[in-house]
């Protein structure tokens, strides 16, 4: 059985072929209006769940074959809830499905936690993101243009550059001391003239 699913109001159409072991399962669907990924569902047998032991990996079938439009790819990505709560992720994330691939879509899950994790039929195990791709032509040259970064990579920009230093606390200004009122003494010359006049008065009284 082949069906087509829309990728939005103005999006491409993707043909989907259901395999026998996936016929009673719903097609991948967006879980919110603006979601980027369709949820992929495990197409395991009802009575045979799969247990991923700590450190183990397994290829989980979805029961679907896609026919992507030329110029598009499908990316298989982990579900954040499984990764956060159970340490289960897509090992080759993001897995790439090419437009000319006609095999079953399978999800390579790995258990990075310390406890076993059981996967049952019908569980949402990964996300499928349809994205346009750009094909290029490689041109061999003798030299490349230089940049300030050069060949620096793998953490060459460091970690501290992304951290903001805490603001420095400003010290409160010290209160200005009030000047004590002082009595101005008369000029020395005035003192001398006063003492001379007193001497003259004393001489007159003696005569």
From TrEMBL:
Pfam families per UniProt: dUTPase
Residues annotated as domain dUTPase-like: 25-158
SUPFAM superfamilies reported for this sequence: dUTPase-like
Enzyme Commission number: 3.6.1.23
InterPro entries for this protein: dUTPase, dUTPase-like, dUTPase-like_sf, dUTPase_trimeric
Bias type Basic residues, positions: 176-207
Domain of life: Bacteria
Function: This enzyme is involved in nucleotide metabolism: it produces dUMP, the immediate precursor of thymidine nucleotides and it decreases the intracellular concentration of dUTP so that uracil cannot be incorporated into DNA.
UniProt name for this protein: Deoxyuridine 5'-triphosphate nucleotidohydrolase
Gene: dut
